[in-house]
DNA sequence: GGCGCCGGTCGAGATCGTCAAGCATTTTAC
DNA sequence: GTAAAATGCTTGACGATCTCGACCGGCGCC
């Protein structure tokens, strides 16, 4: 589905999405129209979801981040989900298996804001919140090359 | 620190990091050299951490994502952190307050891989894993305008 | 008031992207 | 087995874009 050239292009773009076609072309050994066409198709196929910019939340005044686990009260699942989506300080939310239904990332400017936001969910869900103290790994894509971890095994008797 | 023009530039770039200077200039009502200069300074100041591309993990064969909470055994904190950092399938990791020391996102191609990777940590930490079933909110930046949620309150008797 | 800095514009030259045409290789169909 | 069609690439030319230097105006500060 993705050939080696595509992967190399992606690798370069992950580091700098504004790399010029010419530069990309030089690095992978193609002409720029070819690169242009490949990018177009990667976007078209949805492999590239977006070219975007990573902003330091601190620069916007968000001095605090938290991971919030959210367990909606019976019957409130959809309302809670909608509520979360509408609160822009939630910067990420996953619906997961297990007791916690949602795990979300929250950006806030102060502890007061944190409290204010959690209050808005409090009557519809139980939450448990963990403040982020450090970020050992900031968002990065999984390995692009097919050679991921050796873990590869099929479900079978071990 | 950031003026309105900067914020508007960021807003446009979040949606498409490859927007041309000319287009940016037109949208905010400046000349392109000015925009260029502003971007340069935003990068320099670290407001813009990177221009990057968002890749669909599925396109790379990662059919499964999980949130893993990790509690290193006594004395193993640093070893565990290093281990996590070295496993490229961890696409994000936060060090948090509370019983769980780390919360991480894991990209895998199969349940077998998931098991394989968790095994590598099993003797140094307790983990609890939640498989991601859906992503109500995919990574997005917090509000750029100063008018965040009304939550704003200072710590005080309520 | 005069000075210097900051952030802006303008215009020219250099760079880059896009388009059409054409070519080689592979696939498909008969 | 061969011919047609489809892919994916290159090249070169043209138009669009970026960058750089020169210059300008507002603002804070002696």
Automatic annotation (TrEMBL), chains A, B:
Source organism (scientific name)? Mesorhizobium sangaii
**GO biological-process terms attached to the record:** regulation of DNA-templated transcription; response to amino acid
The record, for InterPro entries, names: ArsR-like_HTH, AsnC-type_HTH_dom, Dimeric_a/b-barrel, Tscrpt_reg_AsnC-like, Tscrpt_reg_AsnC/Lrp_C, Tscrpt_reg_HTH_AsnC-type_CS, WH-like_DNA-bd_sf, WH_DNA-bd_sf
Q: Which domain of life is it from?
A: Bacteria
Q: Which UniProt keywords apply?
A: DNA-binding, Transcription, Transcription regulation
Q: What is this protein called?
A: Lrp/AsnC family leucine-responsive transcriptional regulator
Q: Name one Pfam family in it.
A: HTH_24
Domain annotation HTH asnC-type: ranges: 2-63
Any one GO cellular component localisation term in the record: cytosol
Q: Give this protein's Gene Ontology molecular function annotations.
A: sequence-specific DNA binding
Q: Which SUPFAM superfamilies match?
A: Dimeric alpha+beta barrel, Winged helix' DNA-binding domain
